[in-house]
Amino acid sequence: MTGSKMAGDAEIDFLGLTHELETQELEAPGGVGSPQLYGQLLTLYLLKNDLCNAKFLWKRIPQSVKSGNGELSLIWVVGQHMWQRDYPGVYEALRKDWSESIRPIMSALSESVRKQALNLVRLAYSSINVDEFAVFMGLPVAEAKQAALSEGWTLDSQARFLTPKKPEPVLSATLPNEQHLSVLTDYVSFLEN
């Protein structure tokens, strides 16, 4: 994901910002960046679902910077819940009042986590209870139902179950047997020469 639409239709280049912040961290005086730099970089790693880099960044942030900025710890709580695949915990941790520099990234992260959860349910479930789905999506029941229906899912209102619309299978380009045999013969002939 190279960018995302944010409030006011401003385009933010998250990939470019990540590279810029990594460079700033490397070039920081004394090897220690600002709390804002660490907060944004940690949040961007979470947005990219790059949990390994997020964890390594958390470990290399000096303790004095961590203890002097409470928002860093709150960001890392989001990361911990993501690491454990605790979706309700992720949504709860995301419901904070983030600083101006973190808010747009957290908004994109929240949207990304919901899309991942929706896709996971689509692939893993043949049907799911509406209440369970709402918890998994971190949304009120009515909004969760609406989100599922807008994706083409079906709702059994009496049983209160949603049936996900399965993704279309991706057809891979396969060679016909004769053509495959011909390519293999050409390859073996080439190796023998």
Automatic annotation (TrEMBL):
Coiled-coil regions listed: none
Keywords associated with the record: Cytoplasm, Nucleus, Signalosome
Residue ranges of every copy of the CSN8/PSMD8/EIF3K domain listed in the record: 35-168
InterPro entries per the UniProt record, alphabetical: COP9_CSN8 (IPR033205), CSN8_PSD8_EIF3K (IPR033464)
GO CC terms in record: COP9 signalosome; cytoplasm
Location of this chain's protein in the cell: Cytoplasm; Nucleus
Stored PANTHER family: COP9 SIGNALOSOME COMPLEX SUBUNIT 8
Protein name: CSN8/PSMD8/EIF3K domain-containing protein
